[in-house]
Amino acid sequence: MHRRAKRYTSSHLQLLVLKAAPAPTRIGITTSRKVGNAVRRNRYRRLIRESLRRVLLKLASGYKIVIVVRPQPEGAFVPSYGEICEQVNRLLVLAGLLPSGTNTRDAD
């Protein structure tokens, strides 16, 4: 999937999108050990999952999506929930999977 997927990048995340058969959209989140220790990696995953949960019903169907957390320099901070939401939202809109007016922070 990684070779054929279309890539979209932000400062902390990379979005890989591949058109799949007509089926529900599948989403995966990847964090390598280069991102940091288990606490840091799990924090990223929780923040990304929560931001996706708010827009899940608005996502286009029939795609395979992988969100990769990009390694940051040593001592870099974990971004806030608002920053992660903004980056996830921007990448999904850029990929055409989410309508452009959607905000992941207050989608409920």
Question: What coarse outline follows from CA principal-axis ratios?
Answer: globular
The number of distinct structural domains comes to 1
| Secondary-structure element order, N to C | EEEHEH
CATH fold node name: Ribosomal Protein S5, domain 2
The profile of the biggest β sheet is: 4 strands, mixed
Terminal CA distance = 32 Å
Strand content: 15-25%
Fraction of helical residues: 25-40%
Segments where pLDDT lies below 50 for 5+ residues?
none
What CATH first level would be assigned? Alpha Beta
- Mean pLDDT level: 86
- Would you identify the CATH architecture? 2-Layer Sandwich
Short description:
It comes from Gloeobacter violaceus (strain ATCC 29082 / PCC 7421). The chain is an alpha+beta fold and 108 residues long. It has a single domain, classed as Ribosomal Protein S5, domain 2, CATH 3.30.230.10.
